[in-house]
Amino acid sequence: MVIIDGIEGDALVNPSDEELASYKAKAEEFAAQKAEWKLLKDAKSVTADGKEVILGANIGTPEDVEGANDNGAEAVGLFRSEFLYMNSAELPTEEEQFQAYKKAVEGMNGKQVVVRTMDIGGDKNLPYLPLPEEENPFLGYRAIRISLDRQDIFRTQLRALLRASNYGRLAIMFPMIATVSEFKQAKAIFEEEKAKLVAEGVAVSDDIEVGMMMEIPAAAMIADKLAKYADFFSIGTNDLIGYSMAADRGNERVSYLYQPYNPSILRIIKRVIDASHAEGKWTGMCGEMAGDQTAVPLLAGMGLDEFSMSATSILKTRSLMKKLDTTKMKELADKALDSETSEEVEALVAEYTK
Ligand code: PEP
Ligand code: MG
């Protein structure tokens, strides 16, 4: 007999009677908790003092939309489009991509779907698109850098996205933007493809938000400048933390540096949110941190507008949100930003949310 604890990520082989009894009780408790969360499926995500936020889902394929809806997603905050490329034996055609994006936006019934353009490179490679051997692939030829270089691939994707925009509420964001110039180039190519489609008589939404991922510290430092051009930011903490701490996200030996609650990371996040708000724009987060129950009170206190996470974390987070008061969370966030260590911040959150 094996017990699998999917919450803690543990497995117990041949459990004792006591272990079995304790896990049975735990499983029942969790089922009861889930039933309670389920009641919030169609509810809005509001804090105790009435501030609304958006809780979205991260998806990899259009089929994931079903799970997003079942879990009460108010949006898709991140559609990792590279899965369309990774699940294919060759570059997906414009038509194949169009069908996939159309299915996703239609499935979300008018709720926003943010599609991230291809984020290949780093740890995600395509067998049919050999990339040069690099010493540091995470600092190399990847994501928007490939798209701006291989415009044939990028333009095909943008055309598919533009065509799908007519079937729901689609938004686009570019991954791994480091400079204003990269964003402007990507946006200009988007505008060119849009103009071409319109000239061809293809129906395209004239209300597509075009934003960017915030994953590179250098971009966060000029968030005020980028906010003039991007319609929104989505903070990709998975990469942002790695690049900020100079610690590879997949390297166990330096995993102690992977500290979402470190004041350094919180300050970067705060800076990005404030910069977007100063330009009347919004900021979301689509890295793992957005669904982290210790981080959520801090992010709410810093004014994050949208939290996008794995679908199964949404209802739990909505339930937590209902208990949070934004004034108190702002006070908590201010203290956290002025702390010295990650541990100190964790202790603060524990104290505020107990
Ligand atoms: C991120 O970096 O936080 C992110 C959401 O992108 P990915 O995990 O796909 O790199
Ligand atoms: Mg990333």
Question: Brief description of this entry?
Answer:
This protein is 46% helix and 15% strand. α6 packs across α7. By secondary structure, the chain is α/β, with parallel strands linked by helices.
Topology:
Elements: E1 2-5, E2 10-13, H1 17-38, E3 45-46, E4 52-59, H2 64-70, E5 76-80, H3 82-86, H4 94-107, E6 112-116, H5 144-149, H6 151-164, E7 169-174, H7 180-199, E8 209-214, H8 217-221, H9 223-226, E9 232-235, H10 237-245, H11 263-278, E10 282-285, H12 295-301, E11 306-309, H13 314-323, H14 326-337, H15 342-353
Bound molecules: phosphoenolpyruvate and magnesium ion.
Residues 78, 80, 119, 215, 236-239, 286-287 line the site of phosphoenolpyruvate (PEP).
Can you describe this structure?
The chain has 354 residues and is α/β, with parallel strands linked by helices. It folds into 2 domains: 38 residues, no CATH class; 310 residues, Phosphoenolpyruvate-binding domains (TIM Barrel, Alpha-Beta Barrel). 46% of the residues lie in helices and 15% in strands. It contains 15 helices and 11 strands. The protein has an 8-stranded parallel beta barrel with strand order 4-5-6-7-8-9-10-11, surrounded by 5 helices. Strands 1-2 form a two-stranded antiparallel sheet. β4, α2 and β5 form a beta-alpha-beta unit. α14 runs antiparallel to α15. It is globular. The model has no long low-confidence stretch (mean pLDDT 96). Bound molecules: phosphoenolpyruvate and magnesium ion. The site of magnesium ion has 4 residues, from α10. Magnesium ion binds next to α10.
